[in-house]
Design goal:
Keywords: Hydrolase, Magnesium, Manganese, Metal-binding. InterPro entries: CoAse (IPR045121), NUDIX_hydrolase-like_dom_sf (IPR015797), NUDIX_hydrolase_dom (IPR000086). The chain is α+β, with helices and mostly antiparallel strands. 20% of the residues lie in helices and 32% in strands. The protein has a single domain, classed as Nucleoside Triphosphate Pyrophosphohydrolase (Alpha-Beta Complex), CATH 3.90.79. The chain has a three-stranded antiparallel sheet. Strands 2-11-7 form a three-stranded antiparallel sheet, with no helix packed on it. A three-stranded antiparallel sheet has the order 8-9-10. The two termini are 19 Å apart.
Length: 161
């Protein structure tokens, strides 16, 4: 299973993010954007993605993006070696089981241009954490029950950019 999100290396470089990116003229739907971006970034063909649903739109305060989180199941057993990373956009891929991530993350609060906001922090591995908008999307997907419905699910794709 993977969560795909539109984003931007220029705006969010160095952050843990899900595959995704901005809509292009050829993309008629967020699903098409998600499939195209996933293939461009990590070489995972959309033919192996099964659409499961959409999580709530995420407003990213710092960049002004409105992210449409598409939730999919990967219908093929994948190993890290199966992926082809776009080195301009992805430093590495972190594969993990979402059931191993704590359901009660630490909550951080911030202030940006006079607006207060909060975000969860989920420790992942190797002193790496999922935080900010990506962590809020992960929490929403968890709260919607996608992970509980996919007990046969083994790994989730996170990309470190």
């Amino acid at each position: 299973m993977s969560i795909l999100r539109p984003g931007s290396m220029r705006s969010h470089g160095g952050q843990i993010a899900f595959p995704g990116g901005a809509r292009e003229d050829n993309d008629l739907t967020p699903w098409e954007t998600a499939c195209r971006e996933t293939y461009e970034e990590i070489g995972l063909d959309g033919r192996f993605l099964k659409f499961l649903g959409v999580a709530p739109i995420e407003d990213v305060l710092v960049s002004g993006f409105k992210v449409v989180p598409i939730v999919v199941e990967v219908e093929k057993t994948m190993e890290e070696s199966d992926l082809v990373l776009n080195e301009d956009e992805v430093d590495r891929v972190i594969l993990l089981n979402p059931n191993s991530i704590s359901g009660t993350p630490e909550i951080k609060r911030g202030l940006y241009m006079g607006v207060e906001y909060s975000y969860p922090i989920y420790p992942l591995c190797e002193k790496i954490s999922l935080w900010g908008a990506s962590a809020r999307m992960f929490r929403n997907v968890d709260r919607l029950g996608f992970f509980r419905r996919l007990r046969s699910f083994e790994r989730s794709f996170f990309q470190a950019s």
